[in-house]
Amino acid sequence: MPPPADGVRSTFLKFTVREPIDFAVVSVAANLTLREGVCTGARVVLGAVGPRPYRAVQAEARLIGVPVEERAAVAAAGRRWPAPSRCAGTDTRFRWLGRL
C-alpha cells in the first residue's frame, strides 16, 4: 500500500460496550487533507448507524475550508444525521457519535 500523500491524515474511532475487540456499537472513520492547517478535502463515514456504512457528506462539507480544530469537528458532528433505521437502539447510537 502506498503511503498517504502529504497533508493527508486519517483516523478510525469506535465505541464498544465491553472490550476493544468487540464489535463497534458505533464508529466513525475520517480522512482529511490539510494545507497549512486548513482542511482542503474530507471524507467521513459512520458505521453501525444503519444497514450499511453512511457517508456523512454534510459533515464533510462543513469541514472543508476551515482550520482543523475541535470547534470545527463539533460543528460538523452537530449537523443532520441519516434517518434512523429500524435497528434497535439507533437513537442511542446517534448520541454516541457526537462523543467520538
Summary tags:
100 residues, alpha+beta, Enolase-like, domain 1, four-stranded antiparallel sheet
Architecture overview:
The chain has 100 residues and is of the alpha+beta class. The protein has helices at 57-63, 70-77, 90-97; strands at residues 8-15, 26-35, 38-47, 54-55. It is built from three helices and four strands. A four-stranded antiparallel beta sheet has the order 1-2-3-4. The longest helix has 8 residues, at 70-77. It is globular.
Q: In the CATH hierarchy, what is the superfamily?
A: CO dehydrogenase flavoprotein, C-terminal domain
Question: Which structural class do the helices and strands define?
Answer: alpha+beta
Q: How many distinct helices?
A: 3
Shape: globular
Summarize this, please?
The protein is 23% helix and 30% strand.
Describe the secondary-structure layout.
Elements: E1 8-15, E2 26-35, E3 38-47, E4 54-55, H1 57-63, H2 70-77, H3 90-97
Antiparallel strand pairs: 1-2, 2-3, 3-4
